[in-house]
Backbone:
């Protein structure tokens, strides 16, 4: 439901996981989550939290790091640092940061508002 809400607000949602493409697709769809794109890190032969893993989003979608937001639920995995290393913004959902997808939508809108000033 969260990904769908983001998509309804016009955001392109990408899954970036060390799991295989087929696993991410199967698990997501069995939970009614339909990504706009799933990055196959196995195809790129790079894995998170290495910074090159985050660069695959641009390779696959043509969205520059500055145009993307890495959203993670695990602030200790290395996603924040990996994204930051390529100038990609990041957000943590849960763990006392942003607690819901609607909060994330508002956070993104605020980021966009800052860019337009």
Residues:
């Amino acid at each position: 439901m969260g990904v769908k809400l983001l998509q309804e607000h016009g955001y392109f949602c990408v899954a970036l996981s060390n799991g295989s493409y087929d696993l991410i697709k199967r698990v997501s769809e069995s939970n009614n989550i339909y990504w706009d794109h799933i990055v196959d890190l196995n195809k790129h032969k790079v894995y998170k939290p290495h910074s090159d893993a985050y660069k695959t989003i641009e390779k696959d979608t043509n969205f520059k790091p500055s145009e993307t937001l890495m959203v993670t639920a695990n602030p200790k995995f290395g996603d924040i640092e990996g994204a930051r290393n390529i100038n990609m913004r990041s957000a943590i959902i849960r763990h006392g940061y942003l607690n819901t997808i609607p909060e994330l939508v508002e956070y993104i809108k605020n980021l966009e508002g800052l860019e337009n000033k």
Notes: DSSP finds six helices and four strands in the chain. The chain has a mean pLDDT of 91. The first helix runs from residue 2 to 8.
